[in-house]
């Protein structure tokens, strides 16, 4: 770890996780679900507002699915990974800031703005993930990937703590009321995201073969590269099986992140209890994610992923039975212990499976699979909740995603990483 901390390129790359995780915590997992249900969509039935929230998450995921692999291939051909990262990040920053100006009861503009910010957040992550191949040697990727996610938990948790304090004691900060504090929090996320992206801009270099063509020709080359990869997908059998497994289990992870607060509200838990639980998971996630990095390096990332998925199955079952705030706190601790580990080890494991000169394209597939899965999970929770009139059964339905993902991951060939063909 000391070597990693002395590497300016790695630290600058990891700081982008610190930057954009403010959106994941304050906006996506924290304030937006609460504010949406109580401020923008307060006149709707609880199950209907849950459906609206799931719909917004799914629309953003569909947009990413449609563009991710092609943009990744174009970025590879034109060495444009950083350019695309900054373009999507800018979209996310601007749309997050714009939430400040949306008035009470305006649920449709709110969900559209949120969806656009999600596209920016997720789109930038395609190229951020791809850059790990440039900044870390293969033997260090488990630790480097975990370091990035750990910084994300710490940075996101610190800003979220400040934002929570603003909503609890708005007078202390010279703010009129809690609603105004939440809207200011959205602005703070945008500023935080922008400022801490600067080190990546300055110190992380893009690398790889550069096309001699420019403009439209680069787009054509990227499209041709994508078609070539699709035609030869059978050559990447191991990678494809892993992506299918990832499609299922990461959907479960993302769905729990996005719908946990809405679930707690639906069970009648107090808003402050839910916010405290989120803070707990953030700060637990920092050391736990680093710990998973060491598990990946010394015991293997497959073992680390099995541990994480088994814990998620237990968490989902436990969530069905909770009735009190302390149980939600305990669940938050459990999620914090495994969430970053599953995310970081998935990224580093996948990086070991892909061609070195096509990381943008293949991480486009990676993010496409992850975010197309996110179309399914929130809709399952929302749809099952409406059909059964039970939020508990809706959340319990997530368990099938972890079970299927775990079984498929077991089927991934466990030979040397270079054995990736039929």
From the 3D coordinates, which CATH architecture would you assign? Up-down Bundle
Structural class assignment: mainly alpha
The number of helical segments is 17
Compute the number of strand runs.
0
What is the chain-wise order of helices and strands?
Answer: HHHHHHHHHHHHHHHHH
Mean pLDDT: 80
Radius of gyration: 20 Å
Distance between the termini: 37 Å
Q: What is the helical fraction, as a range of percent?
A: over 70%
| The top level CATH class name | Mainly Alpha
> Which spans of ≥5 residues are poorly predicted at pLDDT below 50?
210-215, 415-422
Number of domains: 1
Task: Describe the protein's architecture and organization.
This protein has helices at residues 2-5, 8-40, 46-78, 81-98, 107-130, 132-135, 141-168, 178-195, 198-203, 216-231, 237-266, 271-298, 301-321, 325-351, 359-388, 391-396, 399-411. It is globular and about 55 Å long. It has a single domain, classed as MFS general substrate transporter like domains (Growth Hormone, Chain: A, Up-down Bundle), CATH 1.20.1250.20. The model is unreliable at 210-215 and 415-422 (pLDDT under 50). Helix 12 runs parallel beside helix 14. Helix content is 80%, strand content 0%. The chain is built from 17 helices and no strands. The two termini are 37 Å apart. It has 422 residues and is mostly helical.
